[in-house]
Amino acid sequence: MSQNKTKAAFMTQGSDVRIVRISRKKTAFKLPPSDTQRWVMSRKVQVIAAVREGRISFVEACTRYRLSEEELRSWMSLLETHGPLGLRATRMQEYRPPETRQDESKSIAAEQA
What we know:
Blueprint lengths: L5 E8 L2 E8 L17 H12 L5 H7 L4 H14 L9 H4 L2 H15 L1
Antiparallel strand pairs: 1-2
């Protein structure tokens, strides 16, 4: 049986003193399922964190989740530049460079014509 080793620490806030528990128990590391199709912000962050912490390699993440290297790199770049909110799919256009958005608009207009 494993014991949950907990220590007590004191935290002061103004004139108040609180006893705070500090747990040494590590939380289980979770990765999204390999068959994930809906990439919400939290799942993207989990994969990026796993790669950065060395729990899985960059190539392994791309293979496991069927991502292109470019896509995973763009997630990492967006996270660094804009934080987790930059990974929301609804905000992707706002974070793309203006010239990229204009090129996409032109190609869509050409396809519709």
